[in-house]
Fold this sequence. Notes:
This protein is mostly helical and 137 residues long.
Amino acid sequence: MNVQAFEELKRVLSGVPERQLDMTNWNSCACAHAIRDGWFRSQGFTDCNDFGRAAAFFQISRGEAEAVFSGRRGRDLTPAEVIEGIDRFLVMSTTRHEDEEAQNARRQAVIDGLLAKANKAAQAARRVATALVAVFF
């Protein structure tokens, strides 16, 4: 996930008047405002008219892009509400990432334990094999 891009998007949105934001229209949504900004343009984000492009630039899944960048039916969103949504998304994604890291650490601990037991068993088998060879020769 491109956290810096989200922080820059929040910066851009904080300067957008409410009447100039329409999250249901690609010409005046958050992405449209972003592609007009110098930072985004310098990063190569110069065109955004579908969720796939937004997902690619912000390094998130298409489904996540739809959740972050689509409007709510029957209700206009203010720039402040979009910023709050981005903040919630960042917190959820960070928490999910931390949960995945914790799960990976637990998984690795189990694997390490199994490898240690297997190594001890292999050493014991070698000792038995060495003793048997010594008895027969």
